[in-house]
Fold this protein.
Amino acid sequence: MPDSGARELPWWRSAAIYQIYPRSFADADGDGVGDLAGVLARLPYLAELGVDAIWFNPWYASPQADAGYDVADYRGIDPLFGTLTEAEELIRQAHTLGIRVVIDVVPNHTSDQHPWFQAALAAAPGSPERARFWFRPGRGPAGTLPPTDWQGFFGGPAWTRITEPDGTPGEWYLHLFAPEQPDFHWEHPGVRAEFESVLRFWFDRGADGFRIDSAALLVKDPALPVSDPDERAYTDREEVHEVYRSWRSLADSYPGGRVLIGEVWLPDPERLARYLRPGEMHTVFNFPYLECPWEAGPLRTVIDDTLRLHEAAGAPATWVLSNHDVDRVVTRYGRADTSFAIYARHHGRPVDLALGTRRARAAALLTQALPGSVYIYQGEELGLWEVEAIPDELRQDPMWERSGRNPANPGRDGCRVPLPWHGDTTPFGFSPEQATAAPWLPQPESWKECTVAAQAADPDSMLTLYRTALRLRRTLPDLRTEQLDWLEAAPTGVLAFRRGAAFTCVVNLSGHAVPLPVAGTPLLASGPLAPDAAGLPPDTAVWLRS
Ligand code: NOJ
């Protein structure tokens, strides 16, 4: 496909990438779970929305202990979602519509049902089969204590003890996430070779890139320190960069601009940027931006840090407001504390949805006006909010059980509720009329106002705002440049910057109306402006031709 950038920059430097969480996007076969046929049928929706690429969360064969991040076959599609033939067809048809396809790769861990792990369980301690994973004897006289005191990211110990084939209590294996997700041993040449082969498998089928799951965690300190309070034994180790250097040469050996996107969830932008050194990843997700509160000062700092570090690395910035692991942005911005932390979700605290929606609209215009690529998590364009009221017995995220069923931090189900497409009652077109099962998580009745059909013809809807912004972002030459210049004269609490010769973005986070710091013709605003367009109300953004 031709590059769309006016200056012939690689497509991924400025792309708008839409994240599809397959189980919640569209259900064609009526079993209550989204599938690839559902996505195929909705590709025209994505083309009309105006995105350049789709990133699919894992679609691989999996027992679904962590919604597909426990992969049993890296070359096969889970029957829940469809078939390999359908995946190939999806890639082909997306390309026909000018949409590129990025898929998830999960290299840190696999599924406990993966043939390699099953073989390791059946083999003896010290065997070559166990060498692909982290098997160790336990501590204490009878080996009853785990080899280290490391905790898993979902809560609970990061080690599980197995029963040996002869029935005796045996070794322990490492899993930084759920017990169903054993960690690979990345010093093992067979593991490295296997993943290179998996990347080739999908590149050969037309995949335009990979989103690399848990990318900072692959390599562990072989000494396995018993205590590791700052997590340096398994986070961000230097040897992990060798892996990405070899993946980069592999990706760059394919035509058409294949991209490697790192999920490197580190709080420190300097550490993040190390994954962008020449010959490593093309881009990484901008979690510092996602976690930032809706406040001018911190946002300005994170934007400046991002641009400075990415420019130095020669990589494009990315801008992310939400994904399948975090509370939806409308809800976050409607709370008193608008920052986000994965282990402190604040469920149950008051949410002002009208305020959150106003801010999310302004944030969308801020995000899409910044230079670099942007991510849109499905439903963000519909202004969906976090569904906090999911009955406990329906929760499926392993975080819920493993972190002790904490109602204030119940896990990630609330941002994974199936999308509303049309109609007045659930399943809102997510599943077909003859469906045999309800959506896998219940949709709020009030989402009848958020359906695609309800928003499509409404000039003031979130969907219309996203469609218009994406179209302008794609077509305005000023937004194809990679430079941003702040208007330092903007009032306190206002973010204002120029792109190119005649584009200005102004975002008012000051809490009261402000005069526009620059004259210009509004191209798009996130909310009503004062009648003469001279004043910008609070929590509102405007794009100006100036
Ligand atoms: C990050 C993914 O985004 C998340 O959904 C998953 O649970 C963990 N990695 C483990 O694969």
